[in-house]
Amino acid sequence: EDPSLERHFKGHRDAVTSVDFSRAKKQLVTGSMDSSLMIWSMKPQMRAYRFVGHKDAVLCVHFSPSGHLVASGSRDKTVRLWIPSIKGESTVFKAHTATVRSVHFSSDGQSLVTASDDKTVKVWTVHRQKFLFSLSQHINWVRCARFSPDGRLIVSSSDDKTVKLWDKTSRECIHSFCEHGGFVNHVDFHPSGNCIAAGGTDSTVKLWDVRMNRLLQHYQGNLSLSVVNSLSFHPSGNYLVTASSDSTLKILDLLEGRLLYTLHGHQGPATCVAFSRDGDFFASGGSDEQVMVWKTNFDTDYGDVVKPQKYGSSVDGTHGTGSEMDCGIHHKKTKTQDAGRTHEQQDEETSLANTLEHILGQLDVLTQTVSILEQRLTLTEDKLKECLENQQKILQNKTN
Questions:
Q1: Per-residue confidence (pLDDT) for residue 313, from 0 to 100
Q2: pTM for the complete prediction?
């Protein structure tokens, strides 16, 4: 079955720049050039919420793993952390000295990585929004930065035409990929963490193995790719979706090394795209102010499909390296692997994991609420000081 358009949201007053699903698929967050974020409910007839606070275009949004926080970055040089409820409260901090183009939570929800036109990548603690360190070897705007699934690596892409891989612990750049012929708009890690994909203004998508630092696949030419603005891996790791300036979304089959689908829907450039955490849906945004939610309709039994295959890494009809796509694609567990575990044990583990996740989510909200209160107290203190200073001046003027 082909992917199908499931929902269609309209509410932004300018181009949609970024989109992300909450973990439970209940909500979708979007950022826009209209300086606002919107939280859309996946339930029919539920109203959307507009969050206002940024003073300029919102260029990036991301849900925390627990789904209890949303990070946003803006042309106003700030990052905001929001509680995605009706009140839409947020804390704000000046993150960079120029436009913030990318925000991304680590998989444990404890760290945030940001990328900016000031040519730096910065890492922060989520609680208290404390600055940790900068990565500053790019020589032009940094468009995108992402944590690896295990949180040990960071990848960044830039207008200097490079993709850089960083070790989070040593804070060193461990490799630069220089094969792109234009600005690199977007980069992301494969779910296995063993390879990365990047797309940009040279109208190509490239996949590299980060263990061997070699090019695995290269898509261009007969795929009619236009400028690639955004991309997202399916959680199975078998597919990649791209959003392009020619208004299309394209789904690539990474096992076969071929184009599966070209989807039309946006009137004007498709600016952003993201799969839901379980891969059942993906959402796209465009310069036409529209947000679209698509049902994936892929074969869900990925275990039967996944076999390491050899094929050419180039899909432009010119050359191929015959490399193996061995990014660490996950096979489904067989029955024999699970035979030793009872249903009760599995249920207990699931219940415990859900409880822990809920506690972590509540901690996120509590620390964020404390941060909001602290910011309000600071503002109140500043106002009180100002009032006292004004009173003192008045008294001095009277005595004089």
A1: 39
A2: 0.80
